[in-house]
Design a protein that fits this description.
With 325 residues, the chain is mainly alpha-helical. The chain has 13 helices and 7 strands. The strands form 3 sheets. The chain has a 3-stranded antiparallel beta sheet. Strands 1-4 form a two-stranded antiparallel ribbon. A hairpin with a 2-residue loop joins strand 2 and strand 3. Helix 1 packs across helix 4, helix 3 packs across helix 4 and helix 6 runs parallel beside helix 8. The longest helix is centred in the N-terminal third of the chain and has 32 residues. The protein is extended and about 75 Å long.
Length: 325
């Protein structure tokens, strides 16, 4: 780590770019070499009966890494342009391993063109659309019985041991396994919810996300819950702190910024983060920035919010100039 600490920020970033380029070149070359090793069956002379054992035991690749490299090597042997894509970064090993079966049965040029520049998830969606539809299974709800608590240990009292195991256990609530096939529209909506609720549930499960939405809907539309709700006071509410961004203004800023971090780097690249977004004061509130002017409020991810705080206020600056969604 120490060899990089004396570099300037610009030199460090240039060095990182150069190392990434070297790594892509090395991966491309190693895949080409691996393909030739398999073509000559050189692994057999080293005592291995197949390429997989050679990669895992001799080259010390993990199981997943060996799998991806073998599939990529076989695909590149048939389609050498894959090596150029690996060097350029337009394809990675995960994507090549995914599309390798399609290269044998489909149009290789079409498959590679569709995969270039795509993430693993995007390629999975594209591949699923090409395959014959599967029968849709029925919706299912399975009740899981609560696991019994272990018997409590004996408690000594007055020289006697009170057997706690005979006391009835308080039952835990059962849980439910839901299984259904979701449409592409529902999937997109859930992914948007994950982004919007990221600050509340950064590692939330579908249970967290769906429970939040269902509870919110019921609180506004369930007649029983509406009757139980306390009536709002008729007089004016308490004055909120001026730095709080009003809900209507939040909605306006969110729509204007497209639900995405607005930070733009020096080379013109805009941050793509859509999770954990915060409403940031462009002119910090602590130095007079307004909270009721949409021109002074923007969406930033947590990392770029802190980056801007350090740039404007220094390392010891007031960090209370942002509002979480």
């Amino acid at each position: 780590m120490g060899i990089f600490r004396d570099l300037s920020n610009d030199d460090l970033l240039r060095r990182m770019d150069a190392l990434a380029l070297d790594e892509r070149r090395a991966i491309s070359e190693s895949i080409a070499c691996l393909a030739e090793v398999e073509r000559r069956k050189l692994y057999a002379g080293l005592g291995y009966s197949n390429m997989f054992d050679y990669c895992v035991q001799h080259l010390r690749y993990s199981i997943g890494s060996a799998y991806r490299r073998i599939h990529a090597a076989r695909a590149a042997d048939a389609h050498p342009e894959i090596l150029s894509d690996l060097r350029a970064g337009t394809l990675n090993l995960c994507v090549v391993a995914l599309v390798a079966p399609e290269l044998k049965s489909g149009n290789p040029g079409e498959v590679l063109a569709a995969a270039r520049g795509k993430s693993k998830r995007e390629v999975e969606v594209w591949l699923a659309a090409r395959r014959p539809p599967e029968p849709v299974p029925p919706d299912r709800v399975t009740v899981r019985s609560p696991a019994p608590e272990p018997p409590a240990a004996g408690v000594e009292g007055g020289g006697a041991v009170l057997a706690m195991a005979d006391r009835p256990l308080a039952p835990k609530a059962p849980t439910f396994d839901y299984s259904f096939v979701a449409s592409a529209g529902l999937h997109r909506s859930i992914e948007r919810l994950k982004n919007i609720l990221w600050n509340r549930f950064p590692f939330g499960t579908l249970d967290n996300i769906l429970n939040e939405v269902v509870e919110d809907y019921l609180s506004r539309h369930d007649p029983e819950l509406k009757l139980k709700a306390e009536p709002r006071p008729s007089g004016p509410g308490p004055v909120r702190a001026r730095r709080v961004v009003a809900r209507r203004l939040r909605d306006l800023v969110w729509s204007r910024d497209g639900g995405r971090c607005t930070f733009v780097a020096r080379d013109g690249k805009r941050c793509e983060c859509r999770r954990g977004l915060e409403f940031d004061h462009i002119i910090p509130y602590s130095v007079g920035g307004r909270s009721d002017d949409p021109a002074n409020i923007r969406l930033l991810c947590r990392e770029h919010n802190q980056h801007e705080r350090r740039r404007l206020l220094g390392e010891g600056g007031n960090g209370a100039d942002s509002v979480k969604w």
